[in-house]
From TrEMBL:
Organism listed in the record: Kwoniella bestiolae CBS 10118
Chain ranges of the Class II aldolase/adducin N-terminal domain: 74-257
A molecular function GO annotation: actin filament binding
Gene3D superfamilies xref list: Class II aldolase/adducin N-terminal domain
UniProt biased composition (Basic and acidic residues): 23-35
Pfam families: Aldolase_II (PF00596)
Region span, Disordered: 1-35
Database matches in PANTHER family: ADDUCIN, CLASS II ALDOLASE_ADDUCIN DOMAIN PROTEIN (AFU_ORTHOLOGUE AFUA_3G09800)
SUPFAM superfamilies: AraD/HMP-PK domain-like (SSF53639)
GO annotations of cellular component type: cytoskeleton
Alphabetical list of InterPro entries matching this protein: Aldolase-II_Adducin_sf, Aldolase_II/adducin_N, Aldolase_II/adducin_N_sf
Biased segments, Polar residues type: 1-19
Protein name: Class II aldolase/adducin N-terminal domain-containing protein
SMART domains with a match to the protein in the record: Aldolase_II
Length: 311
């Protein structure tokens, strides 16, 4: 049993922007924020034809929960293949869970000790609310720490469908600082007012209390957390959103490490203003847009594997 950590949560406030003027007479540039926007943020990021017959597809809706279950498992398997492709494997560490649309208090999870790059939809395990493998999925063991973290998150965050955690290299490196990332590039704006830091490390997670500590650090709305000395955890309204956010935050941790090294050698980084970061997050960070951001990777994986992971 791991020692119980005392929860310390960093409430991340948007950083104050610094503006470097090239001359005393030069005034700060006013933001060119468009205000007459479509009500649905997803409708703001793409454009079709004048007649409205060319449209982007959003998250599909299902009348049959068993068809939705099949779709979820296929996208989960694609998410794991994506992690494998990015080199996120670290022994038996790492797990993604997604709520089941049929048995709504159950969730799907990867089997213990199977490489991400090998996982197929039929390899996924359906876990009961009390953490045991059920007869409805693959008959394989699951990761104990994964159960402890995820069952607490699914209980305390009913607004989310999916949760993901693994030990990617740049994330676990940056996590040693116990600091948030700086909003210094457009993609990073998706983490504006959406990222927590859990500032304790209580050993390998085998205690329900540690799972609750992580959930408390996330709070009622944040979708991402940096766990000090551990790595990242992200949430999503679909597994696609969840895994896209995870990969983006891993890349942003890499960017942060590069920027810190450059700043240590005399270069000064410039932070995006809270106003601009919030505007970008509002328009680019909508959950259905996040789903579509993973679609190119999912479709490429299908082509590269001849759809083998869908089985």
């Amino acid at each position: 049993m791991s020692p119980v950590a005392t929860t310390t949560v960093t409430q991340i406030k948007p950083p104050t922007a610094t503006l470097s003027l090239r001359g005393d007479s030069e005034k700060p540039k006013e933001n060119a924020h468009k205000t007459d926007l479509a009500k649905n943020p997803f409708e703001r990021v793409w454009r079709g034809n004048r007649e409205g017959t060319i449209r982007m597809g959003g998250v599909p809706k299902f009348d049959d929960p068993y068809e939705e279950r099949k779709w979820i498992k296929e996208h989960m398997a694609g998410a794991f293949r994506y992690w494998g492709k990015l080199g996120f494997g670290e022994g038996t560490a790492g797990h993604i869970t997604v709520r089941d649309p049929v048995l709504k208090d159950h969730y799907w999870m990867n089997p213990f000790g199977m490489h991400f790059s090998m996982i197929k939809a039929s390899d996924l395990v359906l876990v009961s609310p009390d953490g045991f493998v059920t007869e409805h999925g693959a008959q394989l063991p699951i990761n104990e720490a994964g159960y402890v973290i995820h069952h607490t998150l699914h209980k305390l965050r009913p607004d989310v469908v999916a949760a993901a955690h693994c030990h990617s290299i740049h994330a676990k490196t940056w996590s040693a600082f116990g600091r948030p990332i700086d909003i210094m590039q457009q993609d990073a704006c998706l983490f504006h007012d959406n990222l927590s830091v859990y500032e304790n490390y209580g050993g390998i997670v085998l205690s329900d209390q540690e799972g609750k500590n992580i959930a408390d650090a996330l709070g009622p709305k944040n979708m991402c957390v940096i766990m000090q000395n551990h790595g990242l955890l992200t949430l999503g309204r679909t597994v696609d959103e969840c895994v896209y956010l995870f990969a983006l935050l891993e890349k942003t941790c890499q960017q942060q490490l590069l920027a810190e090294a450059a700043e240590a050698n005399g270069l000064k980084k410039r932070i995006i203003s809270p106003e601009d970061a919030a505007y970008t997050a509002e328009n680019n960070g909508y959950w259905e847009t996040m789903y579509n951001n993973f679609t190119p990777e999912f479709e490429l994986l299908k082509k590269e594997t001849n759809g083998e992971f869908l089985q």
